[in-house]
Amino acid sequence: MKKSSITKCLFPAAGYGTRFLPATKAMPKEMLPILTKPLIQYGVEEAMEAGIDTMAIITGRGKRAIEDHFDISYELEHQIKGSSKEHLLDDIRKIINKCTFTYTRQKEMKGLGDAILKGEVLIGDNPFAVVLADDLCVNLDGDGVLSQMIKIYEKYKCCIVAVMEVPKEETYKYGVVAGNEIEDSVMMVTDMVEKPDPSKAPSNLAIIGRYILTPDIFQTIRETPVGKNGELQITDALLRQAKKGMVLAYKFEGKRFDCGSVDGFVKATNYFYELDAIVNQ
Ligand code: G1P
Predict the structure, then answer these.
(1) Structure pTM?
(2) CA distances from 29 to 16, 17, 82, 114, 185 (A)
(3) Which string of DSSP letters, residue by residue, matches 252-278?
(4) Fewest C-beta atoms under 10 Å: which of 95, 143, 196, 198?
(5) Ligand 1 pocket check: which of 18, 174, 192, 208 to mutate, most ligand atoms within 8 Å of Cβ?
(6) How far away, in angstroms, is 109 Cα from ligand 1 center?
(7) What is the spatial distance between Cα 206 and Cα 27, in angstroms, rounded to a whole number?
(8) Are strands 159-165 and 37-38 parallel, antiparallel or unpaired?
């Protein structure tokens, strides 16, 4: 595994996944599969590709399947040993062997800012990455999105959010940023609004679920009042951070699927299915 200045990645995974009911009634939404791999495994693989080996997962009630997925299943392995199915566990076995998984529970859903704050106990005084597993990112032409962001972090040593252009009428679904370009695809953030009405959006640059955060963000979150929908928003905390110092927005290279919506989930499934067909030709 390559060495990285960021060794921990936080996965907020306590949400209910109401858009996928009834599928998510008894199953975590992060375990919904794109082909044969659960969503969260794609995120963990992206983090590993970026040199990260400690995965810190914020879970909640009904999320135990995530812990079991990233653990050895002796009975299953014993059962399929020597059969043609054995190789199907190769990838997950490698992940389990190389990474450490730590968990804590968010007892009440009080927003992404609160979920990230709950991760302080797992992250400590270190810069860290955040992956929202709903946002599935791929870059077939080069480094994964977290790898790209860590390179920028190594230069500027500040918080970074990944952004992409969205149609203006969709800004109400995202955190939206405005800023000044300081180098190709990198902007210094001057404004940031959580899920603005299109008429009030400062731009059409939407935050997608990849962040690099410095540990002082925990204190900033504590100082941030609740925002949109009565929840503690990481977007609001990052705007405070931008005003105190510097926050960057990075237009990443690659594709992003919104697997938190049925439409994006189906698109991702088709994309990976076709990719698989090409690879296995
Ligand atoms: C969260 C963030 C939002 C961001 C989005 C990316 O919203 O609050 O700023 O744009 O993730 O997926 P959620 O989709 O969890 O409501």
Answers:
(1) 0.96
(2) 7, 5, 32, 19, 32
(3) -SSEEEETTSHHHHHHHHHHHHHHHHH
(4) 198
(5) 174
(6) 14
(7) 29
(8) unpaired
Q: Do residues 57 and 44 lie in contact, with contact meaning Cβ atoms separated by under 8 Å?
A: no
Domain boundaries, given as residue ranges, for the chain: 8-279
pLDDT at 266 over 90: yes
Residue with tokens 């960057």: 248
Please state whether beta strands 135-138 and 8-12 pair in parallel, antiparallel, or not at all (unpaired): unpaired
- Cα distance between residue 187 and residue 77, in whole Å: 48
Which among 29, 117, 132 is the best mutation to test ligand 1's pocket, defined by most ligand atoms within 8 Å of the CB?
Answer: 132
Kindly report, residue by residue over 61-89, the tens digit of the pLDDT.
Answer: 889 999 999 999 889 888 998 899 988 98
Cα angle at 202 between 188 and 199, to 5 degrees? 170
Determine the residue type at 76. L
Under a CB-based contact definition with an 8 Å cutoff, are residues 116 and 219 in contact? no
Query: What angle do helix axes 145-156 and 39-49 make, rounded to 10 degrees?
Result: 40
Dump pLDDT digits (tens) for 216-250.
999 999 999 999 999 999 999 999 999 999 999 99
Give the CATH number of domain 8-279.
3.90.550.10
